[in-house]
Amino acid sequence: MKRIIAAISLLLLAAFFCFAQAPLPRGYGGIELGMTLDEVKEKLKKNSEFGYHGDRDVSLLPGENRVLIETDTAAGHVNSFLERCYFQFYNEKLYIIIINVNRERMDHYSIFSTLCEKYGNPSSLSPEKSEWRTDSITMTLERPLALKYVDNNVFGEVNAASLVPLSGTEMTREMFLDEL
Predict the structure, then answer these.
(1) In this predicted model, what pLDDT tens digit does every residue of 48-78 receive, in sequence order?
(2) 58 CB contacts (<8 Å, ≥6 apart)?
(3) Nearest CA to 68 among 41, 50, 107?
């Protein structure tokens, strides 16, 4: 009886490992959410796939402590699966990565099926996007062909800081719509 229980336990354990999904990635190409601006620049310099051209690809966004790196593989004549990529920072930490994939070299279905195989079915699905989510990370595959990685905690913090109270006109409009 003990052998049967042990064998069943081993089978269940093996099945668990066969069907267990990998944790969501924190980024792509060695660049991960939470890295500093300088760390990302160094990684971009070492990975020609992104088409990084140095500090001229870095710009400041409106608001405090917000920086954006935009890369373009076409401008650098790099033969890559990537096109334009965006790396957004808040307080010197990377919190959004957007990777536009070259549609002449890759298709939506191949990426979608690979992501499903690795990370399971998306937590939400629509014609525009497929989304995989954990408490800390959201990974999205958007149409026509873009991958997005978001640090949920920092994104929530940035959104909360940018909330502006409704104006009188906006409140009146909301009251009108509520009465419909």
Answers:
(1) 899 888 887 777 666 667 889 999 887 766 6
(2) 37, 41, 67, 68, 69
(3) 41
